[in-house]
């Protein structure tokens, strides 16, 4: 359900930051970076994906990476992205993984580009993945891609988003992250969408996953927060984006902006600041070398 207090849930997304990089980042370097992020203390770490290596070659070593992660008492929970039931079945046996994330688009074009399936076929996959999650103690996170607008000339409205939210909620999906995959969201349509759907589904936690130009990040964070959102995805330095969306990727929401917003609003975030600074330093070197 929607959080009742003012605290933020911070989801760090190195997977999203790395997936579009063409030059392969060595496995041990990924492990070093992820282990450092585990020490920072984010609520959730979106660390890798169980998808075809032909689709996302950068993350073909997710299983090897997972085996080398060191939690050392970290309370951070792991999220893995899957594109179909097969990927979910590969991820489910790993006790370290708490969440399985699936990109469910309200755009037929983008669903085909992202998962090579129609919206209807994807919903059938989600039904089966939800059953798998219930059997294995995992929890699904549905990313409602193109949630704030459709750049492909297809119909879009908050009512279309609400239609799919209703169908997903009816099969028990309890976390949905409204996703701006190509940077078309505005403070106005963020507020309009949240005000339209959140009152109708009090048992669903609605998060936000925004790809945004740096100049508009702060106003979008504020709009989502003021609309009741408390679950925010980000990536250090704002690096990355979705390689399936378009050729000119819009960067991720920068974690630094989320932290700055929380400080401005005097919202406590329980992060190890020393480790955060180490992670920022490493990210700077990592993403300047591999890009």
Question: Secondary-structure map with pairings?
Answer:
Layout: E1 9-12, H1 14-18, H2 27-40, E2 44-50, H3 62-67, E3 77-82, H4 85-91, E4 97-105, H5 108-115, H6 119-136, E5 139-145, H7 158-170, E6 175-180, H8 187-197, E7 205-210, H9 217-226, E8 231-234, H10 255-264, H11 273-289
Parallel strand pairs: 1-2, 1-8, 2-3, 3-4, 4-5, 5-6, 6-7, 7-8
Any overview of this molecule?
The protein is an alpha/beta fold. The chain has one domain: Aldolase class I (TIM Barrel), CATH 3.20.20. Helix content is 41%, strand content 17%. An 8-stranded parallel beta barrel has the order 1-2-3-4-5-6-7-8, surrounded by 6 helices. The longest helix has 18 residues.
Strand percentage, roughly?
15-25%
In total, how many domains does the architecture comprise? 1
Q: Give the low-pLDDT segments.
A: none
Based on secondary structure, the structural category is alpha/beta
The averaged pLDDT comes out at 92
**What is the radius of gyration?**
17 Å
**E-strand count:** 8
Give the topology string: H per helix, E per strand: EHHEHEHEHHEHEHEHEHH
Percentage of residues in helical conformation:
40-55%
Shape annotation: globular
Strand arrangement across the biggest beta sheet: 1-2-3-4-5-6-7-8
Q: Specify the biggest β-sheet.
A: 8 strands, parallel, barrel
| Measured distance between first and last alpha carbons | 38 Å
- Under CATH, the topology can be stated as TIM Barrel
CATH class category label:
Alpha Beta
């Amino acid at each position: 359900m929607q959080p009742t207090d003012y605290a933020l849930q911070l989801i760090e997304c190195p997977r999203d930051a790395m997936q579009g990089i063409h030059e392969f980042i060595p496995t041990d370097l990924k492990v070093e970076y992820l282990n450092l992020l585990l020490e920072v203390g984010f609520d959730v770490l979106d660390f890798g994906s169980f998808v075809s290596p032909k689709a996302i070659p950068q993350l073909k070593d997710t299983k090897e990476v997972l085996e080398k992660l060191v939690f050392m008492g970290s309370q951070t929970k792991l999220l893995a992205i899957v594109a179909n039931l097969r990927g979910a079945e590969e991820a489910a046996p790993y006790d370290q993984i708490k969440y399985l994330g699936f990109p469910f688009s309200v755009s037929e074009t983008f669903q085909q580009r992202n998962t090579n399936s129609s919206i209807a076929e994807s919903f059938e996959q989600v039904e089966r993945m939800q059953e798998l999650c219930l059997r294995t103690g995992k929890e699904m996170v549905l990313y409602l891609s193109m949630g704030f607008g459709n750049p492909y000339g297809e119909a879009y409205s908050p009512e279309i988003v609400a239609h799919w939210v209703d169908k997903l909620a009816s099969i028990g999906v309890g976390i949905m992250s409204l996703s701006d995959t190509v940077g078309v969201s505005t403070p106005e349509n963020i507020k309009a969408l949240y005000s339209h759907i959140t009152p109708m589904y009090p048992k669903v936690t609605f998060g936000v996953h925004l790809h945004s130009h740096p100049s508009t990040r702060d106003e979008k964070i504020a709009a989502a927060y003021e609309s009741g959102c408390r679950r925010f995805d980000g990536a250090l330095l704002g690096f990355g984006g979705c390689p399936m969306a378009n050729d000119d990727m819009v960067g991720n929401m920068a974690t630094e902006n989320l932290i700055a917003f929380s400080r401005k609003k005097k919202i406590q975030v329980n992060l190890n600041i020393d480790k955060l600074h180490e992670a920022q330093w490493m990210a700077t070197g990592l993403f300047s070398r591999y890009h």
